[in-house]
């Protein structure tokens, strides 16, 4: 079923750049473990969703649509305004790579989780983070 322009517009306006559901799920799991972090730190390139500043660990919670999960296949599913959405998402993918490389070059450990990973296994995602923190 095709959505109306109004429905699409409403859906896009609901997208948040911070405090998204996937971020809250992961942060809650980290908080339960006693891991304290900063969120959406503007002074760090890419404004990571979760930051452990002293340990130089930056966590990004990437939603599948905006960050191009399985992009070779998913880009074919975009039906409307392809000339707008495809370059936009491809630039997001490119920016994610640039941010990751720059932060790693500056000594940061960068971890990226897909939203579906976080929803399916928040404990496992938090285990990965906790393990990295323990090793640093």
In short:
It contains seven helices and four strands. It has helices at residues 5-13, 21-32, 64-67, 71-74, 82-105, 115-120, 122-135, and strands at residues 38-39, 50-52, 57-62, 109-114.
Describe the structure.
The protein is of the alpha+beta class and 136 residues long. The chain has a single domain (17-135), classed as VSR Endonuclease (Endonuclease, Chain A), CATH 3.40.960. The chain is built from seven helices and four strands, in the order H-H-E-E-E-H-H-H-E-H-H. It has helices spanning 5-13, 21-32, 64-67, 71-74, 82-105, 115-120, 122-135, and strands spanning 38-39, 50-52, 57-62, 109-114. A four-stranded mixed β-sheet has the order 1-2-3-4, with helices on both faces. A hairpin with a 4-residue loop joins strand 2 (50-52) and strand 3 (57-62). The protein is globular, with a radius of gyration of 16 Å.
